[in-house]
Structures are given as C-alpha cells and as structure tokens.
Amino acid sequence: MIKITKELIDEHGINEKEYSFILESLGREPTITELGIFSAMWSEHCSYKSSKTWLKKLPTSNDKVIQGPGENAGVIDLGDGDAAVFKMESHNHPSYIEPYQGAATGVGGIMRDVFTMGARPVALLNSLRFGDINHSKTKHLLTGVVSGIGGYGNCMGVPTVGGEVEFNACYNDNILVNAMCVGIAKINKIFYSKASGIGNSVVYVGSKTGRDGIHGATMASAEFDDSSDEKRPTVQVGDPFAEKLLLEACLELMKEDIIIAIQDMGAAGLTSSAVEMASKGNVGIDLNLDKLPCREALMTAYEMMLSESQERMLMIIEPEKEKEAKSVFDKWGLDFATIGVLTNTNNIVIKHESEIKADIPLNILESGAPSYNRPYKIVTNPEVDQSYLLKSDKKIIDILKKLISSPNLCSRRWVWEQYDHMVMNDTILRPGGDSAIIRVHGTNKALAVCSDSTPRYCAADPTEGGKQAVAESWRNITSVGAKPIAITDCMNFGNPEKEEIMGQFAGVINGMVEACEILDYPVVSGNVSLYNETNGKGINPTPAIGGVGLLESLDHFSTPNFKRKNDNIIILGDTKGHLCQSVFAYEIFGDSQGLPPKVDLILEKKTGDLVRNLVTKLKIDTVHDISDGGLLIALTEMSISGEIGFQLNIDKSNLNYSFLFGEDQGRYIISIEDKNLNDAIEYIEKSNISYLSIGKTNGKKIKIDRDNEIDIEELRDLYENWFKSYLKSN
Amino acid sequence: MEISVIVFPGSNCDRDVAVSLKKVFKRNPKMVWHKEQTLPKSDLIVLPGGFSYGDYLRCGSMAANSPIMSEIIKCGENGTFIIGICNGFQILTETNLLPGTLIRNRDLSFICKNLPLKVENSKSRFTHKYSANEIIEIPVAHNEGNYFADQKTIKNIEDKDLVVFRYCNKDGIINDETNPNGSKNNIAGIINEQGNILGMMPHPERATDKVAGLIDGEKFFISVLESIQ
User: ipTM of this model?
Assistant: First the structure.
C-alpha cells in the first residue's frame, strides 16, 4: 500500500481544502488510485474550475441547435434530417514538448469526439500560434506541428480545409495548437454519453492501454517551466491507422441499435469517460481492470485509470448484444473487452487483482469538484491618438510589399498543401479563402467552416477582442454566402490565478456573450486551456472561434478571387481608418499601443445580412471580408487569387495609410459586373448600409495612383514565398 | 459489366472512386473486403488510394500480401483491367504487377495540390479519349509518390511507351522544376506491357465533378469504360 503523503498530494495538484473534502466525504484516507482519480477529475482541464462560472454566461441555443455544450461535441440541424457535429479542442502543452505527436494526437482526439456521436468526420480545421520567427524553437515547432496535423488527418482520409497560423513572441515558450473537427450525422442516429440500464455491460474498444500520457490532464493544467522537457513521457503517441479502423468499426456498429451510450477516452482516459458516463446517467459503475487490454505488463490500477493512450472508446451495451458488437470489432482487428457493469450504487468501484483499488461515490467527484470565483480585473490599453502612425514618407506600394510578405499576412499555402484538403471529394472551396465550403455528401447543400481569432485585439481590450473574434467568424461564413449557425470555442489564456489574466478571460467572455446574442451565433461546444505561460509570462488571450454555417444550395456562393476584368469594386460598411493595433502599425512602426477597432454588432448584422442577400438573391459571386491588414491587403488577395489586377479610383483625400491599411470592422469588398451594378446599388441603398465605389478590376497590375503601381506577379512571389525562404534560412 | 473496388484497412479513397465510377459507368461497383478469398467476377478491379495498413513497414507492402491479392494477381495476368491509384499504385508495384517502386517525395513532405499532367500515351486503353500530348489537370495527394526504378527498367518503360502520364507545367514543359516529387523522368503513371494494368499517383477520381472544380479525370474513366465494352 502506497502511503499518501503531503508530497504526493501536492504532486497531484490537490490543495489542502480539496484534500480535507476528500477525507471528509470518503470517511478515510484515499488510496493512490483514488487520489489519481480525484486529481484528474478536478484538474483545471477536466473540471473547468476557474472558468465554469463564466462559461455559463455564453448563449448556447437557437432554433438550429440540437445539442449544446456538455456532450462530446455540439450538434446543429442542417435540415432534411442531417446534422453537423463539431468541436474544437486544444493540445498546446503536448505540442510544445513533442510537436509531431502532440499535434497529431490533438487531431485524433477531436475526431473521436465527433465520431463518438455517430457522425462521420468531414472536415478538419486548426488554429495554430507559434513564437517569434527568430526564436530558436519556432521552425522546429512549426514543421513538427504541421506535419503532425497532416500525418494524422491525411491517414484518416478526412480533409483539413481551414485554419490559421500566427507568429508572435508571446507564444515563444507556449505555442497553441487547437484542432477542430466537423462531422455529418443523421439527426435520428446521434449517440450520447449518458449511461443507462443497471446490469448493462461496460465495453472497452480500440487500441490497447499503455503507460503513455499518464497525468496529461494534470500537466495541461500547470504552468510550464524550464523542466518541462522532462514531461515528455506524458505526451501520447498517435496511431492514425488504429483510429481509422476505430472510426469505421464504430460507424458500422452504429448502423444497428446496439450502442446505448458511448464516449471516447480523451483527457484523463478511462477515469473521465467512466465517471462522466455514469454520472450523467445517475448510475454506478464497476470496472474490473483484470479485463483491460494492456500493451505493457504489470500496469497498476493507477496507471490504467490515468493512461491517455489514444484511439480508445468506452461503450454501454446490453449483455445479450455483446456478441454481435464484438464481431464488428473483430472484423476491423480491434480489441473488444467487457470490463465492467453498470450498478445501482452510484459509486465508481475499481477492482484489480482481486482487490478493490477505488470506491468513490460519483456525486462527490461531481459536486465536490471545485469551482472558483477567481478575482479579476479587466484591463484595457489607454487610448492613444493615432496621428503618429500617419507620419512616414514610405511609399504606399513599398508598405504593401512589406505587409504582403510579412509572416502574419503572407500566403499559408506551404502549410495547407501538406494537408490532404480534398479527400472525400466534397471540398467545394479549398483553404485560402474566408471560409472553406464542404458539400454535405450526396446533396446540393454545404457547410461553410472557418477558424479565427485576433489575440492582439483581445490583449489590448479583452471585451472588444471577444466581440471581434465572434464577429469575424460570422463575417467569414457570411463572405461565402452562407448563413452562420453556431460556433465552437477554444479559450487559450494564461494563469487564471492572476487577476489581470482572469480579467482577460472575463472580458473576452463578456464580449463573446454580446456578439453571440446579437448575431444569433451560439456556442455549442468548446474547451478551455489555461496556464498558457512560461516562466511567468502569459500569452495574448486567444479565444479561437470555430464557425459553422449552412449554404442551402451550391448554385450560388461567393469566393474572394476577382473573376472578370472591368468589374466594379465596392466596399460595404464604414471606413474610418482605425490604425491602432493594426498589422500596419506593428509591421511598419513596431507599435502596439492603443485600442483595437470597435465592433458595432447591430451594424455588423445588417451588413452581413445584406451581403448574404446579394450573393443568394442577386448572384454576386465575388466577396471578401476586410480584416488583418485592411483594405489594400484584402484587394491584393483578391487580385492574386484571381490573377486580375485593379485600378483604384478614389478621392485624393483617401490616398492615405489609414484609409488603405486601417482595420475598421464590419466591412466587405464585393465586385460586380456592369450589367448588375444598378440592381445591386439599388438593393444596397434600400438596406441603408454605407458603401463606396473604389475602382474597377483591370489588367495584370495593381494601380493605386500614378506613383504606386505594381505587377501582380511580383506581389504573388512576395506573398507565396515567405514560408519557403524562412524555412530554408538558417 | 462488373467492377470491384478493393477495400483494405486504411483505404480512404474507396468511396471517392466508387462515386466517380458510378457516375461514368452508371452502375455501383462492388466493395470487396481485402480478407475475401475469392473475387466476384470483375471486368475492372480498382485498388483505391489511402493508407492501407497505415503505410506501416512500407507503403503498400502489407496490402500486397492481403488474402484477396493472389486472386487479383491471377486476374491481372489473365488480362483483367486493373487500376491502382496512389496507394493502389504502390500496392501494384509491391506485387510486381507493375515495375519500379514509389519512394518518399524529394522534399520529404506530403503534397496535396492540383497538377498539370501531360498525356504521354493517348493510345492506351486507359487514355484513348485524351488527345495526343493533351495537358490535363489532376490533383495529387501523397507523401511517397517519387517513382523510382533502375535505369534498365526505366529504359524499357520508355522504349515501350508505357509511360501514360508525366508531371509538367501548364505549357507542357517537363523538367526538374515541374517535377513535384522527384519521380524519374517526371513519371506520374504507367501501364504494364500487356496494357491492362495501370498505376498512377494522381487522383483522377478527384477530377470528375464540376462543382468541386475539376473534370479532366472523366475522360480517363470513359476510356476504360469504352475499352472494356
């Protein structure tokens, strides 16, 4: 018997108050296995102890939401009996320690969350953040993460269709790897994790259990320090081949009425799936670990309960149906073991080698789970007058060249060409646009999906940043002509025990709540990753938003590339010229003072609704939202992707940095053929949205004025080559 | 006419190719599990893309030893049409139904993109609907697509006109710069000497749907259909 010492309790991240609660509720000292279970279930990662009072504020329903947060993934209604199932999750700490495996298992984990609900995964997205490009680890982490994401998704045969990559020194020692998966299911064939039926079997399927990833959830809930590399053994190793088999076997079994409940074994492995399934069903659960398929000899109950070996699922089925279920897993060559039974005790009881290793009332794991109202202070940057950002004699064209080839605005082609983004043959709009479009297989409707965040805005003003993250996602879905339906979020923040960081969390949530409500764009699933700091330095607050929208018909949608010469280019929305917190301010002046642009959510909604109508009713086929880098960057992206130039025709007073590079929110660029112009203008005027005609598409050059013009080819080279030359450099 | 698509554990383009075949052939192919000992009567056998056995050991090597393969080898030797796409091509080289092998891409990374291909042999039973030297656009998605064989084999393939597709640019230029993965002589697809077995790394099944963007793969499947009829 291992003696429970103060050191052991500390090592498990359990504080004094929590430990006295354990002693009191059990009426005895916990065993080491029990201590491990408490530690995992009460870790920040599993219990959301710092965040849950805030997460409750987020809107989680609208008329399309079938399942909000609380299940393996969120579910929305796509009509015709189809549903989309989706979620985003972080795998930050493992990816920093071992980038390939960390990223790969992040992708594997999020796919399991989706197919455990009966959905076939149809799209993967990600949101990646790395340190400064000159930091010694950045190249290694970038190449490792990208090949890990590709390695897993490509092998699974699920297209990776979207994502974002940002470099910023605040992520030097704590990169962010957030992965999102979207699946399609039939509404009447969605599977949940609530266990039911006393006497039913608890069945383990998938890969065998090894010693990898023990205490991953606890690691993910601690700050990193210089000894973090020593934690390498707690990173799991992925086997996408095993997961592909598990996917096919699960979906095959799900065609029959056999599975009562199912959940994947993710963070905290068997512990969290067994505890959560039984708790949701208000039943007890007995596990006999002698039956557990193990990869290694002499594993203890503690190790089996806390292993985070990948590609495993826990199911509840009726004992008489075991044989039929097993035959499916036999076909796919996967382990299938009945390891327990549901009981009426409301306890989780773990037996191993004829001993009871743990016996805990489930309600104390749940009700006793700590929940903190941590003190917080929302801090925003002081407002500054931006006039100092206008004082430069740099030519507009030189600034454009610098921005378009800067690490955070250049083409991400090097990244997404390493991902199979077309397998399944339903990728209608590939990576590189505002959203990807994925056809619902065998139909003429489609999903629009995207992932977004602007952490520098959140750092400068958490509330406005939170609003903006949601609004930008909504805008990106709108840009392709789709109707935004719901989001998943991955909230990456620093140490919540610090008032200002908790204030960032609170502010971002407040902003998100407002945006989700006004835009009718609720949160249906998500994940919180705290303690993202190293040696006391926090990351920029990074709420990654994964958006999903519906395109009722593929007959009409829009893309950003210019399609024709002589089209009229029009900006929808107000251009005020806000430069503080812009990419321009950072890249040209090295400046990050002041406040981010404000989001007017009411106007945002009106403008977006107009854009959607222009696409679906007036057949406008070219739309791009204006985001990082402002107007001129958005226009240049439209030119490069369409291989058609443009000539600006604007008032001389607008030929300035703030008009061309300001990042005012809620704006779109559209391009319209002459013959449709009058109808479109009439429609726009009726909807009372301000617009400005700024020129025409033309030739192979970008012409701003007589002194500022350039061949698209030259810009394309700058835009496309940054990644390759960066990775070649020493 | 009967078509069989062989499904290995880890195949992931099996459904995609079935959709394209159904569109062109107007019939559903049979999906045949790799553990079957007997093959249904087939006029065309397709080995789809994917990661059979996770690409472990060596791409295609384990699948080449699946139970169904001995039947397929027999059929191939007796003149049945066989198409191997991507991982299917790798399996065909592992069974020696086609010469050479596919090694890791020159730049050591996975490549997924549309690529121009030159139809080098437009007389084959798989390509006769294309015009001579036609430049078509078909996507690739692979990590091990670098076609390699010894000089004697390459010479034999070239002399006998067994190269059907070569990587090029949109003007048809074939050189190192237009070679995405380091393949010998920019080889993207070959046939056997009897002309009934084809292997190619690009995915024609990803180019038969206008809504998704590309249609140049259609003529490939129509060529096969007409050859069988």
Answer: 0.97
